[in-house]
Amino acid sequence: MRILLSPSETKSVGGSGVPLDLAGLSLPSLTATRRTVADALVAVCTGDPGEAQRLLGLSDALSGEVTLDAELWTSPTAPALSRYTGVLYDALDQASFTKATRARAEARLWIGSALFGLVAAADPIPHYRLSAGTQLPGLGTLRATWRTALTDAVAEWAEELVLDLRSGGYHQLGPVPGAVTVDVVTEYPDGTRKVVSHFSKHHKGLLARTLATSRAELSDLGSLLRVARRAGHAIERTSDTVLTLVTEP
Questions:
Q1: Would you say the C-alpha torsion 205, 225, 176, 33 has a positive or negative sign?
Q2: 105 contacts 11 by C-beta, under 8 angstroms
Q3: What is the DSSP string of 184-245?
Q4: pTM of whole model > 0.85?
């Protein structure tokens, strides 16, 4: 089973790993596209920091992110699972993993990225700032840049169960045919339901933790639902490719 997560705008800084080596990342067929995007990002951040700040949608308080992007090729790396922070990753709580649960999580978790397309949980990456909606000089939209390469790269997953928890913008960078998605809704006492927006990240993080660390063999929707429900998640099978996670108000 593979579980795809959204990245986060916020990331840890620093790390103890050697500088970025694109050839060492998972899904090596994406190396050329990763280099194209990385070179375009570094070029604008080194050549015109003010324009880079505008393109990246950064406030003056966050202008230091431009400098960090400019140092992309020389800054230290950390495992992707440790690099990303924020609501989803707080719920995932990777810092509490045991050696065994971390091994299972690293085998199952993947993280979407506007810079790298997709990275495995253990892939070493530097701090960076780039969102799916950014358009870099010399490139079209990142959706156009990534879509074919990324969908082709994951074609080998066709026979596997893939749970795609990425948000809309990152899902559009490279849809995975046949992947299962999850809608998060709140159910009120009168039975009405409302789609959850911001806190969707929290609930998806909790679900991802349950599934990523489970000792069960998760090869189909039936086994996924059993494990999730045993852990207390109120989850429904809406269709063969859509699940609904029901939360309380």
A1: positive
A2: no
A3: EEEE-TTS-EEE--TTHHHHHHHHHHHHHH-SS---SHHHHHHHHHHTT-EEEE-SSSEEEE
A4: yes
In whole angstroms, what is the distance from residue 135 CA to residue 137 CA?
A: 7
Question: pLDDT tens digits for 143-185?
Answer: 999 999 999 999 989 899 999 999 989 999 999 999 999 999 9
Q: What is the tally of helices (H) and strands (E) in the chain? A: 10, 10
Strands (E), 30-92: 77-79
Domain range spanning residue 178? Answer: 2-247
Question: Inter-axis angle of helices 31-47 and 142-153, to 10 degrees?
Answer: 160
Say how many domains are in the chain: 1
- The helix (run of H) or strand (run of E) holding residue 2 is strand 2-5
CA angle 28, 208, 236 (to 5 degrees): 120
Neighbours of 177 (CB within 10 A): 11
Host H or E run for residue 180? strand 180-187
